[in-house]
Design brief:
heterodimer; A: alpha/beta; 10 strands; B: globular
């Protein structure tokens, strides 16, 4: 476990610090922005980092930028990077930070003095739905079975997922609440990342687990884990899992990812960034990236996105309070 | 036998000239990043991810695997020569390795590390080749309660590094446990001992502490007493391993491999814990326990073998089940996705040529590493011919740059020097520094697993004795801890039956 943590911490590193070859496939076309600066408040390799690197690829392929420079400042679900972005990147018109729902929760749980409302919302780009799974030999065949067991004795139903207060924990709390239980009673077992949580599920050490579909998809297809429900509003193409809603659990949750400009950017810079993201979203290169990574497109830009973030903040703060974490 | 056929196909891929070059590039790059504290294989591979857009999948994975393996070799070099561990898995190597270097035996220490890494790495890859599926099944049986009991066993390893006074040793251990608490508590998401500094939310990096205590602390100690300089002995003779070095090393290599590989396959195992356990085992079994702490070659051979074997072990759950159980494995899996390959339990069936090419390239990389590192051992050892003031000045610069590289945060540098100052004081007042590191690594591990076990059992403490794995481990711990004490008592009783009442 520690090795993992150390490696991850070591990896809180700017790509700029080490100029290893990053300039593959650079092409010279006419562009609006020369160098896009991407700030990733997470370590290389994770979801936000992959989003940034996919953006770089797609934007370059579409000829919208000449190049991009990615800076990683990882740790604590984005709570380490955000203050740096707010204070040191203020007013930079060519910079974007990648973030998402996990960050909203992390900032609330850590009681961070810096809020996501201090940055400039540009666009929501992608999302991933969460799935609830049980080991293949589990007696629970549906969400109803699982919920009945939870209601009978919450201490007998353990839920594995990512760190406390993250999207997995939030969904567990929402399910408990929607089915009339007490979110505080959820016996949540936090693991660092998907690997160890999956191992606990495959070894049937826990009753059930929650993570993004991408994390569990292959285990589900191989029949090693059974998916009970997905947190989408409707059935997803290519994913044969019933939604939580159709099983009577009125819960919807998407682990969204989006981009933000620093605080204090000029209105025309903000508009240019929104325009850039809209163009990227329409480009075939971006669609290819979405397909390769199995991401659901969830484009939402400008003021609508700002309102969405405010609503998410309230909703997540509410559920974290009910979980006893905020 | 089917496996052998696949492996042969794998070698056919790995031995293609282009792939050999990728392996060479990978292990060289890996050795380089292993040498630098703060630059790990995970980060290096992450930065190289963009090449997945321009080279074939097999080549990319051969490169990545080379980096991973190379880093495990490289980390020991700076531990031995400069007392500056490049990787957390090579911290223990510094304990005896650097002492050997100061006695003019750096080349022997580097050689036993390199050959031990080769032997254990090869054993590990053999295990990966032939035992992966059953081992994964076994590893999955480990639940939080069993991990906690395993940590109880591991804590006994502290006794090997306590030094002359048990009280001082345990004080150091307590300090390590305290440092390990800093950061966000995973089970509740709440920050602990962070003093409002966002940089501390993710905890204190164990590399910063190790480099601070060992390298900076040692340098300050030397600077404070200039006469001490003379103690770096000139290189002795050819410096190569003697017959007695070989005799003392080979068993340690095998034992280290036997500990490291299964530990690596555990989803929460990691590479550090087996190095502690190996050090403890070697000290207990050695015919020269008095040499430990003064440059015992077994203390380098065992832990180095353990960390390389565990590196192969980590690949077992990754290739057999698609489970990324280390940061490096996680990044390698995300590289699979760049090629449209979904790593999972079916990876071996759906991508046999890739997986077997990767495994075969590990054998090849291991041989290349040995060829690269053995001749270098003598060359590297010459670093110690630099006059002490220059050498230690260089170590300070190296430690500082490496630490800054970890997160480019000035907070880490301040911590490095605070901990370095602490290391100086500990050295000055004869407190051992190794228990700090062990406490820092084992403490949070044990705590998190204990709390997971409690959450799952609903607060029932009996899980530790009702689960067979956990119970067995606790019995082992009790025997290791109490066995020697009881034995000694019986011997004392036999010798002087009249004094027996005074003992109580």
């Amino acid at each position: 476990m520690m090795q993992r943590r150390d490696f991850i911490r070591m990896a809180l590193y700017g790509s700029a610090a080490l100029s290893l070859p990053m300039a593959f496939g650079r092409s010279a076309q006419a562009q609006a922005i020369d160098t896009l600066k991407l700030f990733v408040p997470a370590n290389p390799g994770g979801g936000w980092d992959q989003t940034a690197r996919s953006m770089e690829q797609a934007l370059k392929a579409a000829g919208l930028i000449k190049g991009a420079q990615v800076t990683n400042v990882g740790g604590a679900g984005g709570a380490v990077g955000l203050p740096q972005f707010v204070n040191q990147w203020k007013g930079q018109g060519n910079a974007l930070m990648v973030g998402g729902m996990v960050m909203v929760g992390a900032l609330i749980a850590n009681r961070s003095p810096i809020k996501l409302t201090q940055v400039t919302p540009i666009a929501r780009l992608t999302g991933e739905y969460q799935v609830v799974v049980v080991p293949a030999n589990s007696p629970h065949k549906s969400m109803q079975d699982l919920i009945a067991a939870f209601k009978a004795d919450p201490s007998k139903v353990s839920w594995a997922g990512g760190s406390a207060g993250g999207s997995d924990h939030i969904l567990a709390g929402m399910i408990a609440k929607a089915s009339g239980g007490d979110p505080k009673k959820v016996a949540y077992v936090a693991y660092p990342g998907g690997g160890p949580a999956q191992a606990a599920l495959l070894g049937a050490q826990v009753t059930c687990g929650i993570s993004g579909y991408g994390e569990f998809g292959e285990q589900i297809k191989a029949g090693k884990l059974r998916a009970l429900g997905i947190s989408a509003d409707k059935r997803q193409p290519g994913i044969d899992i019933p939604t939580l809603k159709e099983q009577g659990v009125d819960v919807e949750l998407v682990n969204w990812r989006g981009v933000f400009a620093p605080p204090g950017v000029k209105p025309q810079d903000r508009d240019a960034m929104i325009d850039l993201m809209a163009k990227m979203n329409d480009s075939p290169a971006w669609k290819e990236q979405l397909k390769a990574k199995d991401w659901t497109p969830l484009f939402l830009a400008g003021d609508d996105y700002a309102r969405y973030i405010e609503a998410e903040n309230k909703r997540i703060e509410g559920i974290l309070t009910e979980l006893g974490l905020a | 036998m089917e496996t052998l056929g696949f492996l042969a196909d794998g070698f056919a891929i790995a031995l293609q000239p282009a792939n050999l070059l990728w392996a060479l590039l990978g292990v060289t790059l890996g050795t380089a990043v292993g040498v630098l504290p703060g630059l790990g294989p995970a980060l290096t591979i992450a930065l190289l991810l963009p090449i997945t857009f321009s080279v074939p999948a097999t080549a990319a994975f051969i490169l990545f695997a080379g980096i991973y393996y190379g880093a495990m070799y490289g980390g020991s070099t700076t531990s031995i020569l400069l007392n500056t561990p490049g990787e957390s898995a090579t911290i223990i190597t510094a304990l005896e390795g650097h002492k050997m270097a100061r006695q003019g035996r750096a080349a022997a220490a580097l050689a036993t590390a390199a050959i031990g890494s080769f032997v254990a790495g090869t054993i590990g890859i053999l295990g990966l080749t032939f035992l992966a599926p059953p081992l994964v099944e076994l590893a999955l049986q480990f639940g939080p309660a069993d991990y906690f009991s395993l940590m109880v066993v591991s804590f006994i390893a502290v006794s090997a590094v306590l030094g002359s006074s048990v009280l001082r040793g345990l004080t150091s251990l307590g300090l390590g446990l305290l440092l390990g608490l800093v950061g966000i508590d995973m089970q509740t998401g709440q920050p602990r001992f962070t003093f409002g500094l966002p940089e501390l939310l993710d905890g204190i990096n164990v590399i910063v502490v190790a480099v601070g205590l060992f390298a900076v602390g040692e340098t300050l100690y030397l600077a404070a007493r200039p006469k001490y300089h003379g103690s770096i002995a000139p290189l002795k003779g050819r410096g190569w391993m003697t017959r007695s070095d070989w005799a003392r090393s080979w068993k340690a290599w095998l034992r280290g491999a036997a500990l490291g590989f299964p530990f690596g396959t555990l989803p929460a195992g990691g590479a550090e814990v087996p190095t502690f356990v190996s050090y403890y085992v070697e000290k207990k079994l050695s015919k020269h326990p008095e040499e430990f702490g003064h440059g015992a070659i077994e203390g380098v051979a065992g832990p180095e073998a353990a960390n390389n074997a565990s590196a192969a072990g980590v690949l077992v759950p990754m290739l057999a089940l698609g489970l990324p159980t280390s940061a490096t494995a996680a990044i390698m899996l995300s590289a699979f996705q760049s090629y449209g390959i979904n790593p999972g339990p079916l990876l071996l069936q759906s991508q046999p040529e890739l997986v077997w090419g990767l495994i075969a390239s590990l054998y090849v990389g291991n041989v290349i590493l040995l060829i690269l590192n053995l001749p270098l051992a003598g060359l590297w050892a010459k670093v110690l011919a630099i006059p002490a003031p220059w050498l230690y000045g260089g170590i300070l610069v190296f430690a500082t740059i490496g630490t800054y590289g970890i997160s480019q945060s000035p907070i880490d540098l301040i911590l490095l020097y605070i901990i370095g100052g602490m290391g100086y004081l500990m050295r000055r007042f004869d407190y051992p520094t190794a228990p700090v590191i062990i406490g820092m690594i084992l403490g949070p591990f044990a705590e998190q697993e204990f709390r997971r076990a409690m959450t799952i059992s609903g607060g029932d403490l009996t899980v530790f004795v009702t689960r067979p794995l956990s119970l067995t481990l606790l019995i082992i711990a009790a025997v290791l801890l109490l066995g020697p004490i009881l034995l000694r008592r019986r011997m004392v009783q036999r010798r002087s039956p009249f004094r027996h009442h005074h003992d109580n």
